[in-house]
Design goal:
single chain, mainly alpha, 6 helices, about 80% helix, elongated
Length: about 160
């Protein structure tokens, strides 16, 4: 495992992921409301169009697939081989994305979105406050990403790496 390359790729993936998700959030904020705490999701539901949710899927699914492919190809070109090394490379890089998502989108962007009232129907909802927000963000980034999504990413990256 090439630690320098893994860290740099993790930072690159973090920046790309957060830039794409953040950019499309400002274009289709209502579609992203489905990813917010339950109260905000319910308050914004009447304003969410099916077309926006479909566009969101067409943004996120290819984004993840391209990230997995980049991680595997980059690790392979850096000389990383073997399932275990590729797995930990993919896992580590996705943890960078996890931390970036938490700090950039769930903490900093929440403040901006709350202040600007970008989600129609949920402008003054109590779940914008930290107590409601942490009920979603902490379990998501403290449990689901490290124990479910990052290992799945590691397995996918290692699988692609084995094919290379």
């Amino acid at each position: 495992m090439n630690w320098a390359r893994t860290i740099l790729d993790g930072i690159i993936m973090c920046v790309i992921f957060n830039a794409v998700v953040g950019m499309f959030f400002f274009v289709f904020p209502q579609a992203y409301s489905r990813m917010f705490p339950k109260g905000i999701k319910e308050a914004a539901a009447p304003f969410v169009r099916k077309k926006d949710v479909t566009i969101l899927r067409f943004v996120l699914i290819p984004l993840y697939l391209l990230m997995f492919l980049y991680m595997a190809v980059s690790a392979h070109l850096a000389g990383t081989s073997g399932f275990k090394a590729m797995f930990w490379t993919g896992y580590t890089e996705m943890m960078f994305v996890n931390f970036g998502d938490f700090f950039l989108l769930d903490v900093l962007a929440r403040i901006y979105v709350k202040d600007k009232g970008l989600i129609r129907g949920a402008e003054n909802h109590p779940d914008w406050e930290w107590k409601g927000w942490w009920k979603l963000a902490v379990p998501e980034h403290g449990f689901f990403w490290p124990f479910l999504f990052c290992p799945l990413t590691g397995a996918i990256v290692a699988g692609i790496g084995q094919l290379l």
